[in-house]
Design goal:
With 77 residues, the protein is mainly beta. Helix content is 8%, strand content 21%. The strands form 3 sheets. The chain has a two-stranded antiparallel sheet. Strands 3-4 form a two-stranded antiparallel sheet. Strands 5-6 form a two-stranded antiparallel ribbon. The longest helix has 6 residues, at 71-76. It is elongated and about 45 Å long.
Length: 77
């Protein structure tokens, strides 16, 4: 199967609504319409390595009842 690197892997459309390929997986464009957002640290507000839709059981530094901590804040708590 030949894949078109200008074809959005999320909505299968070609157009100008893409995130640059350097941000996409395997060089493919990713649709801005469906862009996944990273979770922020509840203490310092820094972006963490986890997406908001990542289940809490699959995360490190997640505090039940508080939320996601970045590595630095987790080390200092």
């Amino acid at each position: 199967m030949i894949m078109n690197k200008e074809l959005c892997i999320n909505c299968n459309e070609v157009g100008s609504h893409f995130v640059p390929p350097s941000l996409g997986e395997e060089g493919f464009f990713i649709c801005k319409k469906n862009k996944r957002e990273k979770d922020l640290c509840v203490l310092c507000g820094k972006e963490t390595k986890y997406y908001k839709d990542t289940h809490v059981d699959l995360r490190e530094n997640y505090v039940d009842g508080a939320g996601q901590l970045c590595g630095n804040c987790s080390d200092n708590v």
